[in-house]
Amino acid sequence: xxxxxxxxxxxxxxxxxxxxxxxxxxxxxxxxxxxxxxxxxxxxxxxxxxxxxxxxxxxxxxxxxxxxxxxxxxxxxxxxxxxxxxxxxxxxxxxxxxxxxxxxxxxxxxxxxxxxxxxxxxxxxxxxxxxxxxxxxxxxxxxxxxxxxxxxxxxxxxxxxxxxxxxxxxxxxxxxxxxxxxxxxxxxxxxxxxxxx
Length: 197
Hints:
With 197 residues, the protein is α+β, with helices and mostly antiparallel strands.
């Protein structure tokens, strides 16, 4: 399994400990690293080794038992829930394993929803580019239940890049894609990391 984090600004992780709230098992311990600007990082490991937990801690969806996550000099583990939500909205794009598409919204609406939350408006030119890039032109009026797994994956990726985030957290972003789409999307994500400020 591969997890991709595309970094546009600096990230530092200093985790002393993370314990699952249900079972006293140390999932992550004594983990320290820094990710430089415009990097692409893949986190690999066996199932159950803590990859998704680490990804969720790095983007503030989970909180470490102890330690820090420093993003551009700001320790996001010290932010209030409201400020952390604002941080994520302004800086992060997410591609979740289970897509997290809103079932009552069309593809068009699912892709635009993050941009509306961030800026209260949508860059229509960018939207058209993203839809074209991900080959979703003929699916924009479909609802999630009408899509294949690969199509849902592409909608999730489109939504993640719609706000032009500084960091993309992607949990198995190509797990449901065929080899042609996998290569195309990974090439695009690499280009995105290199070219965007």
